[in-house]
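Input/output pair, single chain:
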Amino acid sequence: MNSNFQNKTFIFLERLWLVGVILAILLVVYFLIMKDNDSALFFFGFFILASLIYLMRKRQRVKHQAFLKHKEEEQKKTK
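Output:
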C-alpha cells in the first residue's frame, strides 16, 4: 500500500469522525432545546465516543507521518 494513500486515508477518517463530533454537538443542543433529555443523553454519549475516536485517529496520523519522515531521512543518509 502506498504511503500517500495511507496518509489520505488517515486524514479522511479523521475528518469523518470530526464531522460526527460536530453533528453530535448540534443534535445534543437541538434535543436539549426540545426538552428531550433522553435523546440528548444518547447523542452526548455519541459525542464522547466520536471525540475519543477522532483524537485516536489524529494521534495515529501524526505518528505515521513522523515515522514516514524518519524513514525518509534515514534513506537520504544511506544514499
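The chain is about 90% helix and 0% strand. The helical segments are 3-33, 37-78.
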